[in-house]
Design a protein that fits this description.
InterPro entries: A-glucoronidase_C_sf, GH, Glyco_hydro_67_aGlcAse, Glyco_hydro_67_aGlcAse_N, Glyco_hydro_67_C, Glyco_hydro_67_cat, Hex-like_dom2. Belongs to the glycosyl hydrolase 67 family. The chain has 18 helices and 15 strands. By secondary structure, it is an alpha/beta fold. Bound molecules: alpha-D-glucopyranuronic acid.
Length: 665
């Protein structure tokens, strides 16, 4: 088979070393699956099918799977698993213990992962439990199959063929999710179309849900707030109107008839033109509770994920302050099955931004994080940007809201404020390209997201190493080269596009290339809203003398970030308007440092190209060449970013480019 990347990290190619192969054969003569019931189920069938596929590929064996009943284990939670060695009729076997069929399935994938990575199965003693309950992908997929901010082809969901024709890809998609422990998917765009809630579409959604269910994947839908008017014939969508409540109650009941394990709704309201409760003088809590009520009443765990990506461009308040201002006063008003879904940053998935100060700021409200796997502002699956490093930075970030150690990871997993329900969302980078993600190495982002959703304390390098081992037949040296490349790649994009805390200076519309000069229509899209370049200097003043966005953070962070002397270079221009001749930590002036960062970004892309050239023969030619071509384009793009931004900012700085920076082409 051509190495087109279709198999993702689930390749299961034959273990070549004879010794390892026979070790593995010896160790898995049988596999024991222990759950509280010990009974068969569609999920257990899926587990068996995956073990059969995996072990046939890896060692040419069809394993015997013994189902046994055993006591519930408190340490494994709902979805966790344990792997241990046992003997069955004198033969060595591996036992997967779990409290649920889904947990057992995750254990089976973990076992296969170990074998793919050639890890020893001797003295197995592994317990793994996810820290977050709902581990979701969000698809920004429209019903016409256009994917908003999608760079890997059309939507995977063939709405026109559903429910009659089921692409085999749906199963492979579900396997991929389950293999990293993801357990839910929102299949429709946040810019929602109410049509998906009509009876016709619900039968299609049901068909997808039926395919996903055995793999432990629950389906969720985006709910357009004005749906009662658009498809229900009502004259209002006012959340406090009893007829509107009755409409949603009936709609939820209808959805449950089709999809008994329906996960719930994701809602974008009163943001970027989407309808919402504000139209009726109501607030976000009124809106969210409207949908949460029938879900809770049904007693099936349904949740509402209400997005905090809200801002009004008519509002002259600094855009990054608006979500906090809107949501903090509502703390305590949201129903228990509502989670406020917050993008990692207060602006919009920039290559780097300060974290959203809303995290931890509403202790009585369930909060979840939304990360963006698709590379909207990081090169659109043409450029290489491994995002594991970015998400590690986000999840490990200390908010200090309840003292030191109040990391975003702990806010999101619910442990900081003892919340009963926790969730995480990643905006998918998938499409119908053969390799799923466009750039072959962008698969690593899907993988890394899933692994971090399971355990936000995993390290980005460990995940990259794991993914590389699963994805390529590379020797140790080549693997290390790939991992190093991945690890540096996000910072490289930051350097050549938005270094030192610059943000939102991309071209409007496509968001792919530079556009610090962009003006148009709205205050926040009109230069210099974000970069504030002038003859004095550069950067957004968000301390007390400016918009004072800094006041939304804990005192510890105000101290670190609000003072020029303390703020790290990475966030300098996010919080401060800095004179061109300001002396940086490096001893250089701001202008020179800025110019050299852009140059460094270009140089790093060149270095990546050289590394990749060197790798030829170390991995299969097909994927090697696909990446080679993309890196070549990335160099051109990086040069464009550098030249465009430096020429633009030079109009204000009126200073020459320092030595070491190439003159613009
Ligand atoms: C960004 C993105 C939009 C998207 C929006 C959102 O602004 O460009 O395409 O709809 O985020 O997250 O709602």
């Amino acid at each position: 088979m051509a190495e087109d990347g279709y198999r993702l990290w689930l390749r299961y190619d034959r273990v070549e070393s004879r010794e390892t192969r026979s070790d593995y054969r010896g160790a898995v003569e049988a596999i024991v699956v222990q759950t509280p019931t010990g009974e068969a189920s569609p999920t257990i069938d899926a587990l068996k099918a995956e073990l059969a596929r995996g072990l046939d590929g890896l060692i040419g064996r069809d394993p015997t799977v013994h189902l046994v009943a055993g006591e519930t284990r408190d340490d494994l939670g709902a979805d966790g698993y344990a792997l241990t060695n046992v003997t069955v009729d004198g033969d060595d076997a591996v036992r997967i213990t779990a409290n649920s069929d889904a947990g057992a399935l995750y254990g089976a994938f973990a076992l296969l992962r170990k074998m793919q990575l050639r890890e020893s199965l001797d003295a197995l003693d592994e317990v793994s439990v996810p820290k977050i309950d709902r581990r979701l992908l969000n698809h920004w997929d429209n019903l016409n199959r256009f994917v908003e901010r999608g760079y890997a082809g059309f939507s995977l969901w063939e709405w026109n063929y559903l429910p009659d024709i089921l692409s085999p890809r749906y199963t492979d998609y579900a396997r991929a999710l389950a293999s990293v422990g993801l357990n839910g998917t929102v299949v429709t765009n946040v810019n929602a179309n109410a049509l998906v809630l009509t009876p016709e579409y619900l039968t299609k959604v049901k068909a997808l849900a039926d395919v996903f269910r055995p793999w432990g994947i629950r389906i969720y839908l985006t709910a357009r707030f004005s749906a009662p008017m658009e498809i229900g014939g009502l004259e209002t969508a006012d959340p406090l109107d009893p007829a509107v409540q009755a409409w949603w109650d009936a709609k939820v009941a209808e959805i449950y008839e089709h999809i008994p394990d329906f996960g719930g709704f994701l809602v974008k309201a009163n943001s970027e033109g989407q309808p919402g409760p504000w139209e009726y003088g109501r607030d976000h809590a009124d809106g969210a509770n409207l949908l949460a009520k029938p879900l809770a009443a049904a007693g099936r765990d349904g949740i509402v994920m209400w997005r905090a990506f809200v801002y009004a461009f008519e509002d002259t308040t600094d855009r990054v302050k608006q979500a906090y201002n809107q949501f903090v006063p509502l703390d305590g008003k949201f129903a228990d099955n509502v989670l406020v879904q917050i993008k990692n940053g207060p602006l919009d998935f920039m290559p780097r931004e300060a974290f959203s100060p809303l995290f931890g700021a509403t202790p009585q409200t369930n909060q979840m994080v939304e990360l963006q796997i698709t590379q909207e502002y990081l090169g659109a699956s043409i450029q290489l940007a491994y995002l594991g490093t970015m998400w590690e930075e986000v999840l490990d970030q200390d908010t200090y809201v309840a003292g030191e150690g109040s990391t975003i990871g702990k806010v999101v997993d619910g442990s900081l404020f003892n919340h009963p329900v926790s969730a995480i969302a990643g905006v998918a980078n998938t499409g119908d390209d053969r390799n799923w993600t466009g750039h072959p190495l962008a698969q690593a982002n899907w993988y890394a997201y899933g692994r971090l959703a399971w355990d936000h304390e995993l390290g980005a390098r460990d995940i990259a190493t794991e993914w590389t081992g699963l994805t390529f037949d590379a020797d140790e040296e080549a693997s290390t080269q790939i991992v190093d490349l991945l690890m540096g790649s996000r910072e490289t994009v930051v350097n050549y596009s938005m270094p030192l805390g610059l943000h939102h200076i991309m071209e409007r519309g496509h968001h792919y290339g530079p556009g610090p000069w962009v003006t148009g229509g709205r205050a926040d899209w009109t230069s210099p809203y974000y970069h504030q370049a002038d003859e004095v200097g550069l950067g957004a003043n968000r301390i007390a003398s400016g918009t004072n966005a800094i006041e939304q953070y804990a005192p510890e962070l105000q101290e670190q970030w609000g003072q020029l002397a303390n703020v790290p270079d990475e966030l300098l221009l996010w919080f401060h308007h800095v004179p061109w001749d300001y002396e940086m930590r490096s001893g250089r002036t701001l202008w020179n440092e800025l110019a050299l960062r852009y140059q460094q970004g270009v140089d790093e892309v060149r270095a990546m190209r050289a590394t990749w050239a060197d790798l030829r023969g170390g991995i299969d030619e097909e994927r090697w060449d696909a990446v080679r071509q993309r890196l070549a384009l990335q160099e051109k793009d990086a040069i464009e970013w550098r030249d465009a931004c430096l020429l633009y900012f030079q109009q204000f700085s009126q200073r020459p480019l320092p030595e070491g920076v190439e003159a613009p082409a």
